[in-house]
Amino acid sequence: MIYFDNAATTKCSGEVLDIYNMYASDYFYNPSTLYTQGVNVKRDINRARANILSLFNASPLDNLIFTSGGTESNVTALLGSKKKPHSKIIISESEHNSVHQTAMELKNRGYEVVLAPVDSNGLVDIGAFTKLLSKNVALVSIIHVNNETGGINNIKKLAEITKLVSKDIIFHSDGVQAVGKIKVDFTDLNVDFYSCSAHKIEGPKGCGALVIKNNRHVNPLILGGGQEFNLRSSTENVPAIMAFNNALTRRVNALDCNFDKVNLFFNKLFNYFSAYRDIQILSTREGSPYILAVALSGIRGEVMQHAMEMDNILIGTGSACTSNKQTKRIPSALKLSKNFIDGIIRISFNHDNTIEEIHKFTESFEKLYKQLKR
Prior knowledge:
Elements lengths: L1 E3 L9 H12 L10 H20 L7 E5 L2 H11 L7 E5 L4 H12 L3 E5 L9 H7 L4 E5 L13 H11 L4 E5 L11 H4 L3 E5 L10 E5 L14 H4 L7 H16 L1 H20 L4 E3 L9 E6 L4 H10 L2 E5 L11 H5 L10 E5 L6 H19 L1
Helix pairs in contact: 1-9, 2-9, 3-4
């Protein structure tokens, strides 16, 4: 089976599984206990926290809380951050559902929510974004790497423009598809909150983190025993945290090497799809090479997905695979025409893919595309 849906999830590496199993069996102790074994586990968690902060080049005054994943991190940043009632919130048109749906919940609570327009690659229009800013804006949330197209938003520039209007405006970025794939410098980005997830980088599911700038406060969504600095109660998922730390360290250390390898795959398929007049490429060469999205004319994305599955190749689809309004949100934001709106497929790579797999993909796609067109 060839797997090209790595933006959805990745397979845990062997070393990551070894770390996970070690803390699930040998070092299984509750880190809130006061005996030596529990204290040692707590120490290991805090060492992992410090290491991850250093990998993000965060300030020693910045903080990080471990969560159940990217969704919880996003929701915590949007719901938990301090905001003046009835103030304005800006998100992009192409945010992940966890950000979009949370923003809609804030709208129900009386906040004004506006959507910053994006271009055909899912990137925020900086000029249009600037015009939306005002002193009444309390929160901005812009995705770093678009999970549909791989487009990389200029978060540093957007945060800079925002802070010129008011330093009090909270800036959050969803970095789930960026972390471990492109360079992430929390200090340089100058954002207040940054979300990440383990299972996109060969870590376990059910674990993520929210990086918090030193002067920002967040109210907890989960109350209880006061773990994670009273910001996220519940006994820590120690095996997943330690495995996440290992996975992220490995990915950051191999960042350039992995990028170059995956970029080769991306360019091969980008050039391949460019030869088709009735296929629209949604990704850009300036984006993350880990994601390549295209829209097919006259063929539903889910139909192509299932056809390729029969050829033992797994790919993803865009959000247009069903007919309800919510799943039309991203294709509409990308301004896809009627012929293409249902035809999105997403091919997403990992460093353990091979050029031979790329060749098998093109052979399979060409055959199936002709069949489905007929």
